[in-house]
Amino acid sequence: MSAVTGGARLVxxxxxxxxxxxxxxxxxxxxxxxxxxxxxxxxxxxxxxxVDGAVETVASTPVESVAMQGAAVVVCVIGVLLxxxxxxxxxxxxxxxxxxxxxGETAMHRRDLVRHLRGRAExxxxxxSARATVRRGRVDVLIETVVDDPAPVARxxxxxxxxxxxxxxxxxxxRARVRTRRRR
Length: 184
What we know:
By secondary structure, this protein is α+β, with helices and mostly antiparallel strands. It is 49% helix and 20% strand. It has a three-stranded antiparallel beta sheet with strand order 1-3-2.
């Protein structure tokens, strides 16, 4: 955990590197292929031997054909989806915690928050193991128990997780949901 009073924010939405790289790689591959084809045609006066038939087929296909228009629509849709995915910011890796009137920001890595909540649930008597996920508006905890009647274990785990959430006061997950599964 860390606190800052000004300057860079601790909780920020990261850039979408994977979609941006996929879009860049697709455009680079398309550009390099085009340069190779046109360069070979300009130097030798003919298309490369491996793609001669494909280039002639594409060149002889009229733009008004259904196949050409369908291919153009598919390429445009894929391009727009990759572009939107690259522009849409990702999920923040850190969650703001301990929000109060004191100036500054305290943040905790999402993974550490999950570990803390999972540890609190695992410390309850009767819990064999626990899994936790932090979503936008809630914390989901799945506990496994070997007890015949899991209701008291679920209530105790819910109390423990709610106490941990109230203690840390994260900005985004406002409620906890605890589910039980009986382990055989």
